[in-house]
Amino acid sequence: MRNLTYFIATSLDGFIADPKGGFGDFLFEGDHMTALFEEYPDTLPAQGRQALGIDAPNKHFDTVLMGRATYQVPGGLPSPYPHLRQYVVSTRLTSTPPDVEVVTDPLATVRALKSEPGLGIWLCGGGRLAAALLPEIDELVLKIHPIVFGKGIPLFAGEFPTARFTKASTRTFDTGVVFTTYAKEENA
Asked: How do residues 74-100 score in pLDDT, each as one tens digit?
């Protein structure tokens, strides 16, 4: 069975974006970015992969799931991750390229995807979708940036059940960014 991984940048106070959905205050230079390029090339959008000359095979994920707001970030691409199967959860989105599938039931979609063979499923964002999918999230990979937003889009938004995770690994970079991986507790 495949795993659903919430792989996301977050501020020290638990926000994945500012109140308008922007994430420009996160750090995009430094040793943590080198690690990201090398270890998670599958999480880079096509535009970034092309600009950086990255043509690496997918290491962790072959599928990405994102909310409508994450998919439609300003300046976003109509098919941001053509190297992955792309799903957007939305009841309002009406047109996407053929390689981007719009779904309305995220839980059913994730459960069906988990039953298929393949690499992992990347939950790209946002906070409301993460809260809705919390029962199905197997792993959290948090890229914690040394910034405090004070307000914005939380890591998990809305009502959701308590879930326990166990720290699997932590890696600290000179930039102050910390990658921490948590695995869902088996009895959670």
From this structure: 677 899 999 999 999 999 998 899 999
Report the C-alpha gap between 112 and 126 in whole angstroms.
20
Residue 15 φ then ψ, to 5°? -110, 135
Please give the structure tokens belonging to residue 118.
């393949």
Residue 161: burial class (beta carbons within 10 Å; 0-12, 13-18, 19+) = exposed
Largest CA distance in the chain: 43
Domains and CATH numbers, the chain: 4-184 (3.40.430.10)
Report the alpha-carbon distance of residue 101 to residue 84 in Å, rounded: 12
- Total-model pTM: 0.95
pLDDT computed for residue 34 by the predictor: 95
The distance of Cα 51 from the centroid of its chain, to the nearest Å, equals: 21
Dist. CA 41–CA 109, nearest whole Å: 24
Separation between Cα atoms, residue 105 and residue 43, nearest integer Å:
23
Query: From CA 177, how far away is CA 11, in angstroms rounded?
Result: 10
Residue 157 near residue 101, CB atoms below 8 Å: no
